[in-house]
Design goal:
This is SnoaL-like domain-containing protein. By secondary structure, the protein is of the alpha+beta class. It contains 8 helices and 13 strands. The strands form 2 sheets. Strands 7, 8, 9, 10, 11, 12 and 13 form a 7-stranded mixed sheet that branches. Strands 2-1-6-5-4-3 form a 6-stranded mixed sheet.
Amino acid sequence: MSSIIDNFYNCLQTDKSLNAIVAEDAVLNVSYPINQIVGVKAIQSDYWLQFKSAFEHLERKAFIEFDSDYESDQWIAATGYFSGIFVNDFLGIPATGNLLYLRFTELVKINNNKISEYFIIFDFLDVMHQAGIYPLRKSLGHCGQILPPTTMDGLSPVEVNELQADGSEQLVLNMLEELSKFDGKSLLSMQLENYWHPDFMWYGPAGIGTTKGIKSFRERHQGPFVFSFPDRLVDHKACVVKKGNYVATGGWPHMHGTHSVGGWLGLPPTNKTLELRVIDIWRREGDLLKENWVGIDIIHMCKQMGLDIFALMKTSV
């Protein structure tokens, strides 16, 4: 069954009007360098043309998509890939002629049966990786295609009752509170074992990669990140979406932090305060979190640090 998001992209692919499913004053927030597009007319004309021009047979393939109400509005959380044949250059990234998977993570607000606000993080850094012109150091985690939920129920999460979703949300909120307890010295000051399954999967973006287990997560992502941004703070969320064992949150921006220590992505410190565009989707298993799909606009972070990834990419061609 097609969702309103599927219908949105079907309209864009076939040049049909969006007026029936997108609010006139809708705001679309896309990862750098596209950024914000305001109004259905601008979305219709400016958003998708460059995607259509670069990829043939472009198709959205979500493997997680669920919805719930938040502050009287309906929100949808989703993640997966767009797949297509990379036939023409895209954002300056040279075409390969081969199949390409464009990872996305998104939060979509529905008001009066129309899309009114849309946040989507594309992993453009992974597109560079697939094109063979990756400009940063190798990801510390596994770099490759992201898997759907182990339970294969991401498109139709089972919800026994509302208490189940509430319990999932509370587990996530407690875990995020635990992450704020970093003492600046030891990663063990955050007792992740109380919230994460021993085989926890963290599906990070290109530049960081995927990790399995708490030890690997600490070594390959958390350590370099929290020591580089010791004052990081989650200070805004657009929404919380929850259904059964699934929870999503994020924002634009979602976090702020000062890049005061080197190490993250192998980059030296800049002492600049950055805003982070982040979207997280978690799956609970029993009393612990088992899987986490994470979209981070890393190219936007690097731009704030004074590093133009697209310019750097051109020197790698």
